[in-house]
Protein: ProQ/FINO family protein
Amino acid sequence: SEKTGVIARSETVKMEDPVSVGSSSPAVDTHPPEASASKKKRKRRRFPRQPHWTHEFTHNCVEKVKSLFPHLRAESGGFLPLKIGITNDFAAFLTEHPETELTLDEWSCAISCITTRQVYLLRTAVAGIPRYGLDGLPAGQVSECDAQNARRWLAVREKQKLKMKTMQEQTASTEKIER
Structure:
């Protein structure tokens, strides 16, 4: 798990610290490095985007998922909330149906795109809403934790939109002044 990796990294740092203990600087001995500061500097994605996942490739992957699993689409557009672990189900589906014209990589690309779209996040921002499996049947519900995470991502996007709007307004006002 991720927590285990974090613990292992901090233990490694602690093992290196005794080497610097002989230093005369009191900062070394009394102020351990703050983990939260280093976390804020790094932007980490849950699933790193592959270099070959271009806009066109992603679009084609999503279209393949739409055609193979039309029952996962909502009537109003977008996709229904997907079951936790649906990628494992898709891997089993591929084993049973090797003739499928969608690879696991294409599936992962499409799901990465689908689950980060605004419409999907809005649907998953409500706890208790059913999630759906590959067969189109309900398979669990959106948990409160998942709903909070979706709301957090929506808030981040809203903040980014406001920042962009402010920057555009500043640019427009600067251009007017220069004229």
Summary: Residues 2-41 form one domain. The longest strand covers residues 138-141.
